[in-house]
Design goal:
This protein is mostly helical. It has a domain at about 140-235. Helices cover about 70% and strands about 0% of the residues. The chain has helices at about 15-30, 35-50, 70-85, 90-125, 130-135, 140-175, 180-220, 225-235, 240-265, 275-280, 280-295, 305, and strands spanning about 5-10, 10-15. Strands 1-2 form a two-stranded antiparallel ribbon. Helix 1 (about 15-30) crosses helix 11 (about 280-295). It is globular and about 75 Å long.
Length: about 325
């Protein structure tokens, strides 16, 4: 890949130079010198930062072929509907309890990971492993980030559920037709495409928040609104480098996924275990955290703290404007 950059006056914004700098910084943080305690603590912060970001699933293939019969399907649907009607109160109660528990657990994961993002970022910026101090210091910023993530998650859920409900209503209204219905096909295709678009937009927003808004909140000790406004100003002023940045991140995601798969095979799937896998792959996580920082550090003196990571020469200096 060629090093594509933009010129704006005398300032040069590169999406490639920060890659090598992030690799060097990950090596310096974790191996120069190697400190087992620091590795474990920093890995814990990285694990907290990523809570709720991973998941898994399984699939299976039917071992026998089932030939549907309209009368059997009708009887089955009638029996299912009668059973639901007879146990409606129990179903609603159990479903409500499960949904509330899942929602509360999701909120807990988001709240902890919002704190963890600032803890891990602080460790990468200052080359240190600390838990209690950054947990307390960035409480206000983490809570602001938490509310943004909750709102974004709920908005995405509402949009996707609305699309699925609209698709379901169309299919239900046309279910009595014997022949394939073009409207049903168009509805399904449109719903799938709409969900893909929504997922893509949510992914871009998550990328912007994690890679730029959170570092700007950390740098200025600001809340989400001010940090988002600053990021938006940078994006409008220099859209080219950010577009190239997204393309690099896509390639990076593929490469890091392959590295993670190789690590999983070499460790007999131990790398899949919670926390332990994060500790094993900590160099990748430090690299991924350092890359957007070095990228931001190219945007002028106001971002100079990200241009040179490490302990601050003057402990009394502050990055807050």
């Amino acid at each position: 890949m060629n090093d594509e950059v933009e010129q704006h006056g005398t300032r040069r914004i590169s999406v490639i130079d920060p890659l090598s700098r992030a690799i060097d910084w990950a090596r310096d943080v974790l191996f120069r010198p190697f400190n087992f305690e620091k590795w474990i603590v920093l890995g814990f912060c990285a694990w907290l930062a990523m809570l709720g970001n991973c998941g898994g699933g399984s699939s299976g293939n039917p071992s026998s072929r089932w030939e549907p019969d309209d009368r059997q399907i009708g009887r089955g649907l009638d029996e299912a509907w009668n059973w639901v009607a007879d146990h409606l109160i129990e179903i609603v109660t159990i479903t409500g309890v499960v949904v509330c528990c899942c929602f509360a657990f999701w909120l807990l994961l988001l709240w902890i990971s919002s704190r963890g993002k600032f803890m891990f970022l602080d460790g990468v910026v200052h080359d240190r492993a600390s838990v209690v101090e950054p947990w307390k210091r960035y409480r206000v910023q983490a809570n602001s980030l938490f509310f943004l993530r909750v709102g974004l998650g709920l908005a995405g859920l509402v949009v996707i559920v609305s699309i699925l409900l609209a698709m379901g209503l169309v299919i239900w209204s046309r279910s009595e037709m014997r022949q394939p219905d073009p409207l049903m096909i168009v509805t399904v295709v449109f719903a799938v495409m709409a969900i893909i678009v929504v997922a893509f937009v949510l992914t871009l927003l998550e990328l912007a928040i994690n890679d730029f808004v959170v570092p700007l909140m950390y740098l200025r000790s600001n809340r989400v609104g001010a940090a988002w406004s600053e990021f938006w100003g940078l994006l409008l002023a220099r859209p080219g480098p950010f577009i190239l940045y997204v393309l690099v991140k896509i390639v990076m995601a593929v490469v890091l996924a392959l590295i993670g798969l190789i690590a999983c095979c070499l460790t007999c799937c131990i790398a899949l275990l919670p926390y332990i896998g994060t500790v094993i792959l900590l160099p990748l996580h430090v690299f991924r955290q350092a890359y957007p920082l070095y990228f931001l550090g190219q945007f002028g003196p106001r971002y100079a703290r990200f241009a040179t990571l490490g302990p601050e020469p003057d402990a009394g200096a502050a990055d807050v404007e």
